[in-house]
Specification:
Layout (H helix, E strand, L loop, with lengths): L1 H6 L15 H13 L3 H16 L6 H15 L2 H13 L10 H13 L3 H10 L7 H13 L3 H14 L7 H14 L2 H15 L5 H20 L3 H10 L5 H13 L3 H14 L6 H14 L2 H13 L7 H13 L3 H9 L7 H14 L3 H12 L6 H14 L3 H13 L8 E6 L2 E6 L8 H17 L21 H4 L2 H12 L9 E2 L9 H6 L7
Antiparallel strand pairs: 1-2, 1-3
Helix pairs in contact: 2-3, 2-4, 3-4, 4-5, 4-6, 5-6, 6-7, 6-8, 7-8, 8-9, 8-10, 9-10, 10-11, 10-12, 11-12, 12-13, 12-14, 13-14, 14-15, 14-16, 15-16, 16-17, 16-18, 17-18, 18-19, 18-20, 19-20, 20-21, 20-22, 21-22, 22-23, 24-26
Organism: Miscanthus lutarioriparius
GO molecular function: RNA binding; zinc ion binding
Pfam families: DYW_deaminase (PF14432), E_motif (PF20431), Eplus_motif (PF20430), PPR (PF01535), PPR_2 (PF13041)
Length: about 525
């Protein structure tokens, strides 16, 4: 295995004890090093594997290779992992006739740890179906979910349920599934996973089971919170026999994110004053988010100060971002700038864009807005187009149309595009995604007909869209609001109205902010949804 030997030359020299004569002892040592989950010992595990493989009588690779792959996965050592993959292929360990599922599972885990879910899935697909164990499916589902491909993870779980009814999901399967459901807004599938969990864990009372219950219950609180089922999240939380800090953090944030601001802050007070749970930095992100959602400026100031003075927590960029947004949204732009000036870290573009957005909404003046835009553009990241969009709004508000045109031309010349927005909605266990102007859905014709019906009823009731937050001036047909009609949120709402059971809530998950013109609040205020 010369390439691996070369790549390992920069690692620490192998100590004398890495070459035990007995093959079984050597493999056991290799496994112990890999299982230690320490960088130095994982390096040594790779060195030991190299030494053993180069020896006159190496141990069977089907036993030693998984341990080496585990060490490479812990280090996220993709080059070494690929060399180990090549060795497995060379030794026919992945051939259908000689497939060693443990090696394949280890490769799936390796590629997942290295951020290569496509490669992980390819290895999984290469394993004959009859050879795939529950561990194989668990590892593949987790590889997709852990790397952000949540819909693919849900599809793979459904495939397992359909094609391998002999494999009953265990707690590990379902915990990965809960995370994917939370991220995708798949409430129905999450409820199904919850039911399976109750069956899986029911009747167990050992300390290990209780510990696992805490982790799983936290996942359930997170799931229901992200899917808008706050009451279900609270039920799970209230019934937990034991709670850790993550439990409190998840519940405080779930309440905050869904407008239950006072409940969120009351729960924080109970956590710290009654239960004597010491908050951490994540807790204060949730608390400050609650203040931001509720526009509670004074409370935000108080909690931000207490975080430092009472708990000794050094503010992070997320805390500063919340505090700046709280102040800027309330019009305290100068105070927000003072917070930025006192930061212990460099402001990111999100903070500057928050200030620029506040300048747009408060008509704070071109000079200040342009200064905020310049500062945001000076921070290297992928959000430059968002700054240009905001600056275009500033110029449009001031009726400086030449500057609006200049911004659009600059974006075109430099190849900038707005971040693509999508909205997703779960219906009957499947997640449907929509992008602006989407016509790919099988029900597209019906969706647009329903959308026209909604628009006509809103217009008849005197509703006028607020165009102040339209992304770019050219995105608006000022006579019909035609482009706003095509926004992904509206398409998802229309689909939901067509397919949801009457009276059932419609939950939309959005990767970007929701425009005022198409928010549920605007529709609900007109009391029109009941009759649609």
């Amino acid at each position: 295995m010369a390439p691996l030997a070369a790549s390992a030359s920069s690692l620490p020299s192998a100590p004398p004890w890495v070459t035990p004569a007995d093959a079984r002892s050597a493999v056991n040592l290799l496994r112990s090093l890999a299982r230690a989950r320490r960088a130095d010992l994982s390096h040594r595990a790779l060195l030991l594997f190299r030494t053993l493989h180069a020896s006159a009588s190496p141990p069977p690779p089907r036993y030693s290779l998984p341990a080496a792959l585990s060490a490479a996965a812990f280090l996220a050592a993709l080059p070494e992992g690929r060399q180990l993959h090549a060795l497995a292929a060379k030794l026919a360990l992945l051939a259908p006739a000689h497939n060693t599922v443990v090696v394949a599972n280890s490769l799936v885990h390796l590629y997942a740890s290295c951020g290569r879910p496509g490669a992980a899935l390819a290895v999984f697909r290469g394993v004959p179906d009859r050879h795939r164990s529950l561990v194989s499916w668990n590892t593949a589902v987790d590889a997709l979910a852990g790397n952000g491909d949540h819909l693919a993870a849900l599809d793979l779980f459904r495939e397992m349920q359909r094609d391998r009814p002999d494999l009953a999901p265990d707690a590990y399967t379902l915990q990965s599934l809960l995370g994917a459901c939370a991220a995708a807004g798949a409430l129905s599938l999450g409820l199904y996973a919850h039911a399976l969990l109750l069956r899986e864990l029911g009747g167990h009372a050992s300390s290990a089971a209780v510990s696992r219950d805490v982790l799983i219950s936290n996942s359930l609180v997170d799931l229901y919170g992200k899917c808008g089922a706050v009451e279900l999240a609270r039920q799970v939380f209230d019934r937990m026999p034991e709670r850790d800090l993550a439990s409190w953090n998840a519940m405080v944030l779930a309440l905050a994110n869904h407008g239950r601001v006072r409940d969120s802050l009351d729960l924080f007070d109970r956590m710290t004053r009654v239960e004597n749970v010491v908050p951490n930095a994540i807790t204060f992100v949730a608390v400050l988010s609650a203040c931001n959602h509720g526009g509670l400026v004074e409370e935000g100031r108080r909690y931000f100060a207490a975080m430092v003075s009472e708990y000794g927590i050094r503010p992070r960029i997320e805390h500063y971002g919340c505090m700046v947004d709280i102040l800027a949204r309330a019009g305290f732009i100068e105070e927000a700038l003072d917070v930025v000036a006192g930061m212990n870290c460099r402001p990111d573009s999100i903070i500057w864009r928050s200030l620029l957005d506040a300048c747009c909404k408060r008509n704070a003046g071109l000079e200040l807005s342009e200064a905020m835009a310049k500062l945001a553009l000076d921070v290297p990241d992928d959000a430059v187009s968002g700054v240009y969009v905001l600056l275009s709004r500033v110029y449009a508000s001031a009726q400086r149309w030449n500057d609006v045109g200049m911004i659009r031309q600059l974006m075109s010349e430099e190849g900038f595009k707005k971040e693509p927005g999508f909205s997703s909605i779960e219906m009957d266990g499947s997640v449907h995604q929509f992008v602006a102007g989407d016509t790919s859905h099988p029900q597209s014709e019906e969706i647009y007909e329903k959308l026209d019906e909604i628009q006509q009823r809103l217009t008849s009731a005197g509703y006028k869209p607020d165009l102040s937050e339209a992304p770019m001036v050219a995105d608006i047909d000022r006579t019909k609001g035609a482009t706003l009609r095509l926004h992904s949120e509206r398409l998802a709402i229309s689909f939901g109205l067509l397919n949801a059971t009457p009276g059932a809530p419609i939950r939309i998950l959005k990767n970007l902010r929701v425009l005022k013109t198409i928010s549920f609040q605007a529709l609900l205020k007109l009391h029109l949804l009941k009759s649609l």
